[in-house]
Amino acid sequence: MGVRERERVGRHRRGFLRYGAALGAAFVGSHADPLYAQRPENSSPTLADSTKKLGAPVGPYGERARFETAVRRQAKTPTNESSWTFTPLEDSRGIITPSALHFERHHGGIPILDPAKHKLMIHGLVERPLVLTVGEIHRLPAVSRIYFIECSGNTLTEWEKPTESGVQGTHGLTSCSEWTGVPLSLLLKEAGVQNGGTWIVAEGADAAVMTRSIPLEKAMDDILLAYGQNGEALRPEQGYPLRLVIPGWEGSAQVKWVRRLKVVDKPYMTREETSKYTDLMPDGTARRFTFVMEAKSVITTPSGDQRLPSVGFYEIRGLAWSGRGAVRRVEVSTDGGRNWSDARLEEPVLRHAHTRFCHPWRWDGRETILQSRCTDESGYVQPTREELVKQRGLHSYYHNNAIQSWKVSASGSVRNVHA
Q: Which of 41, 155, 264, 374 could form a disulfide with 382 if both were Cys (CB 3.0 to 4.6 A apart)?
């Protein structure tokens, strides 16, 4: 190699090293950064050679890698007949919740229903009462939609004081899936709703006979009679073989194991819309039929019960959603709400679905508070806890969509606080 060629290669190598150093500084800043891969001196990186032995055989039903251990956490209740589980939001990837990790709420245990025997009745104020088998419903024109479902009791523990819980415990009663089924409007049109029919009463086949009144206007708009979730049949705990999916509305109205739909002229004021799932106000009155789940967001990383291993660069990540439609903006504060910056919304951004957001952040090792704030397409802005309590007092149980605060200590530990 000639002198000029060696000089050219040398310049190229020095330029490459300078570029690599600048890129590394932009992302990690120092060897103490968690993204900087350290190893003992005089050691070399190694890769396990999986080709040295025969792999596992193909199974009849796919399983996740044994290294993935995220599970739903079950609520502590006196019995298992009325219980719920929480989705591990901190382990979520993308916006779709795996069916096996979708949160679950039931009031009378999970019924085991044979789809060959299960039927759906549509009656009441209709011209042509219908009794349909699951097979007949499967033959009808179907659609698939991505929607979140959120229990109205999500974040109910946070009204008075912060709990010692991570994001799974504070916000894990929401999940997002692709649902497949028949538009409920198709069946109601086939039955022929009579004049005077303004509500439907949906009834489940569970032991609690879950029953909710739903305005006919919503039923004729975008409600799905679903039998599929994320490309396969509904799981038993998600309503197999049939359930209602109501975009943007509280989970308790989305009756699972549905067996009967009655068209009526007024709400039936069932147990789950009078003594339960109402919002007690400071003056002693109660809000009823508060169906819509308002705009909400939460940072999932870093979040409660997590620990930052060292100072340096982190990507703040989280989820936002709104029952009023699409998320239009998410802001992040890294100083307890004094200053806000726009986070980046990751595609896809869909109406009535979870939306992922992210925001670059360099932690300097000092104590601070992380928050996120969502604005939806209607212009509604997620409130602070103080704003929500001022309006509704501390006797409410449901529909807590207040801004969540995570306190990062100087040691790197993260915990749930009220800022």
A: 374
Degrees, nearest 5: CA angle 377-383-389: 145
Q: For residue 26, give the 3-state DSSP assignment.
A: helix
Cα gap 267→274, rounded to integer Å: 11
> What would the two tokens of residue 401 be?
């969509």
Both structure tokens of 297 = 């967001």
Which of 3.90.420.10, 3.40.50.1220, 3.40.50.10490, 3.30.930.10 would CATH assign to domain 73-284? 3.90.420.10
- In angstroms, rounded to a whole number, what is the distance separating the alpha carbons of residues 327 and 376? 4
The gap from C-alpha 276 to its chain's centroid, in whole angstroms, comes to 23
**Could you tell me the pLDDT band of residue 321, with boundaries at 50, 70 and 90?**
very high
Taking the C-alpha atoms of residue 217 and residue 185, their distance in angstroms, rounded to an integer, is 10
Distance (Å, whole) CA 329 – CA 107: 36
Residue ranges in 125-236 assigned as alpha helix (H): 134-138, 167-171, 184-191, 216-219
Question: What order of strands is seen across the sheet that includes strand 104-106?
Answer: 73-74, 83-86, 104-106
Can you give the pLDDT at residue 46? 67
Contact between 156 and 172 (Cβ < 8 Å): no
CA gap 244, 229 in Å, rounded: 12
Q: Is the pLDDT of residue 394 over 80?
A: yes
In this predicted structure, the answer to whether residue 410 has a pLDDT above a threshold of 50 is: yes
What DSSP assignment string belongs to 248-289? TBBGGGS-BSEEEEEEESS----GGGTTSS-EE-TTS-EE--
With pLDDT > 70 as the criterion, what percentage of the chain qualifies? Answer: 89
Of 133, 218, 234, 110, whose CA–CA distance to 181 is shortest? 234
359/247 Cα distance (integer angstroms): 28
Helical ranges in 120-226 per DSSP H: 134-138, 167-171, 184-191, 216-219
Name the residue among 238, 239, 252 with its Cα closest to residue 289.
252
Rg, Å, the chain Cα set:
26
The domain segmentation of the chain, as residue ranges, is 73-284, 296-417
Instruction: Using the structure block, give the residue that is written with the tokens 């979708």.
Output: 102
**Fold of domain 296-417:** Immunoglobulin-like (2.60.40)
Assign 43 a pLDDT band (cuts: 50, 70, 90): low
